[in-house]
Prior knowledge:
Layout: E1 2-13, E2 16-28, E3 33-37, H1 44-51, E4 59-64, E5 67-68, H2 74-84, E6 85-88, H3 100-110, H4 115-129, H5 144-156, E7 162-166, H6 174-191, E8 194-198, E9 210-215, E10 218-223
Parallel strand pairs: 3-8, 3-9, 6-7, 7-8
Antiparallel strand pairs: 1-2, 1-4, 4-5, 9-10
Helix pairs in contact: 3-4, 4-5
Amino acid sequence: MIICQNLGKKFSKDQKIQYAIEDFSLEIEEGELLILYGPPSSGKTTFLSLLGGLLKADEGSLEILGQEITKLSAEELRVFRQSNIGLHLQTISLFSSLTALENLLAPLYLAGVSKKEALSKALSILQQVGLFEKKDIAVTLLSEGEKSLLHFGRTLVLEPKILLLDEPTLFLDHATSIRIMTLLRELVLDHNMTVVAAIGDSRLHPFASRLIRLKSGQILEIAGEVVKELAPLPYLKI
Length: 238
């Protein structure tokens, strides 16, 4: 599903060229829940941004769903991302003038989903992330944790094939984090969604099919085997 070959991304710092990602080769299977971890500036966010088409690789190749995305034009990349990828970065992006429900309805309407179907999908997502009772509350009145949950819900509402998450539990308490990770496992198991997430909290790492440890833009260690059937984790559920 995702094939990275010798991927490299450079940037300039103090008039010197440095690598954010260097010689990065990895294959990610369909229906996998892969977790990235490592110290700050290890390349986690850069890698997710490359997968999401927000950055363009300087070296190597990146094939997603059979498409070499490094060769797509900006418009082709936008269409590809909209059709296939849900992207959750640490910066929360919501319409502050709208309610929680309206924030989920907006992308559905833009995608041409009917009002009846859009309402059904949006309410279902709010229920899944624990915000159903807040559906008519303005975003400005939500807590940071609730905004993070709503932002997460927006990445799910168009049912992407691939979900890219950068610290999705950063503003959440542990119990809520467990609920979100359990939801991600269900999406992988029930809908064969592929999830790639940067998560620093090691208590959540057992949810992964594979753990990828990064340092200085390179893969140091890959723990776990690619599995189609993720083992149940009853001791982690609330």
